[in-house]
C-alpha cells in the first residue's frame, strides 16, 4: 500500500514523518523513531502549549496531584508504561517488587475501606464484600462472550442486570436489606462506568468486552507525579522536535504535494494547521484523542477516510470522567483509610433514573480516594463519569463544593470542607473525553456498520502513509506502527 511518491529513497533523502498530537502515544512514537538514524526529519505537532495530553501532574495542596492519568494498571513486565517508569526510576521499591508484579487483581478496583449509607449509617463490611463478589464475578463472566457468535443480550449492562435480577429474586433477607444490597450493587455499577469511561454499561457492547487484556500487578502511582514519565520521554527527544501551539485543521492525504525548498520531490501527505502553516510529509501518525476525531471526522481528513474506518471511529464510544479534589483541615477518616464508598440507599441498578440531573448528579460519584498526606492538609479525590460528570462541568467550583460538603455531612457528619476544586476546565475541556469502549448496547446508540471486534479491527488496520493512534492505544499501538515503518524502509 506504499505509493512510489511516498518513498524518499528515490530522492536520496530520509523520509519525513509528522506526528499529530503530543500525548503519550505521540511522544512514544517520536521517541521510537528518533532512536533510529533513518528518521532524522521528524516533527511532533501539538495543539496546546504543553505535551503529555491527559497526563498532567500539578502541585496543589502542598503536594502533587494528578489532574489526568492516575495509576499504572497492571504494573508488570507486559506493560510498556510500567517498563518505562521502571527504566526512569519513577516508582517505589515495593511497586517494582516481584510480589507486586505477580499479584492477580482481575482488573477490578479494590474494595472500599469504609462504606457509608446516605442515611448516615455505616454499611457492613460483610454485605459490601458479598455484593462485590457477586458483581465482579459477573463482570468476569461477561468476558467469556468474546469469541461467541451470538450474545444473550447486546450490552454488558443488560447482561449484569439480567443476572442480578435472577439472583435477587432468591435473596432470603428482609425487604430493607435487599434494597440495601441493590444500592451497594449500584455503587459498583458507578465504579465500572468510571473504569470504562461511559455513562452507562448499557452502552458497552457485550461481545467485545473481553478484548481488554488484564495484566497482573497491583495498581500503582507515581510518587513524583505521572508527568515525570512524559517529561523523561521529552528529554530524550532532540531539541525542537515538538512544535507547540500548532492545532491541526486538516490532514490532506493520498495526494502529491510539493514544497519550494524540496525541488522535484513530492509528498503524499500535507498537514494544514489552523494558523495556515502547512507541513508536507511522507508519513503521518495521528494520535489525537478519539473524542476529537469523532467531533471533527467530516473535516479533519481530506479526502475522507474510507467508509469502514470512519464507521469504526463512529462506533467506538468515548466517555467523560472527572475528578474532584476536596481539602480538609482535619481528616474525618481513619489513618489507614484509602477509599470511602458512598451508597445511595434509594438507588438500584434495576431501576431507571428519572429525576433531573441538577438534583441527583452527585449520586454518580463512586466515592472518594484518600490521597497521601501533604504538608498540612488532607485531601480526598472523587471520581464521577457520564452525563452527571458533564453536568458537573457546567457548575461553578462553589456549587460543586457546596453539594459535596452537604453529601459528606449527610453521610458522615465531618467538619466543614475547606476548599475544593473540580478540574473539568483542565482535564476534559480540550481532551473531549477520557476513555474508550465499543458501542453495541441500546439501539438508540447504535449506527449502521461493524460493531465489536470488527470495529476494533477496522480501526487498527494498516493504511500507510496515514496512521491513526489515539491515546486509548497508548504506547503499544504507535510503537507497532513505528516498527512496521522500519521494516518498510529496510531498517
UniProtKB/TrEMBL annotation:
Amine oxidase domain mapped to chain residues: 24-472
Top-level taxon of origin: Eukaryota
Swiss-Prot/TrEMBL keywords: Cytoplasm, FAD, Flavoprotein, Oxidoreductase
Compartments reported by the entry: Cytoplasm
Gene3D superfamilies listed in its UniProt record: 3.90.660.10, FAD/NAD(P)-binding domain
Example GO molecular function: polyamine oxidase activity
InterPro entries: Amino_oxidase, FAD/NAD-bd_sf, Flavin_monoamine_oxidase
Cofactor: FAD
GO biological process per UniProt: spermidine catabolic process
Assigned protein family: Belongs to the flavin monoamine oxidase family.
UniProt-recorded name of the protein: Peroxisomal N(1)-acetyl-spermine/spermidine oxidase isoform X4
Source organism: Mustela putorius furo (European domestic ferret)
UniProt gene name: LOC101685018
